Amino acid sequence: MRITKLDAAHRQIDSAIALYFDEGDEISIHTLVGAAHILITDLSSAANQETLIQRYIRPERRREFEGAIRAPQNFLKHADKDPHAALDFDPHVTELLLLIEIETFRALAGGITDAMNVFLTSSVRS
Known about the structure:
Number of strands: 0
Number of helices: 6
Distance between the termini: 38 Å
Shape: globular
Low-confidence stretches: none
Radius of gyration: 14 Å
Structural class: mainly alpha
Order of helices and strands: HHHHHH
Mean pLDDT: 92
Strand content: under 5%
């Protein structure tokens, strides 16, 4: 199978959305969205396009914002420095990240998928 990085991000986001509406595992959903975030950020940079974060977060606060939204993802994929750590995970961070990635994906791809549209037009889980 041969896919592009944008295709991979698209599939990760759509899979995360499917899990989200199926009330799937919040950690798995976040892991997929976090992986898409890295791809979309890098693709935006390569295309010289602003991400939603660059557009709406003041430059002096971006590092802090990125650190906050990447903290759960980093916790979920690394254990080399803190193997006994615990995380107070807030699934609403995933919802925010999904919104950011969908809108940034829209700018890169020139549109969004049906699943992304459904997520944007539906109310989030409480």
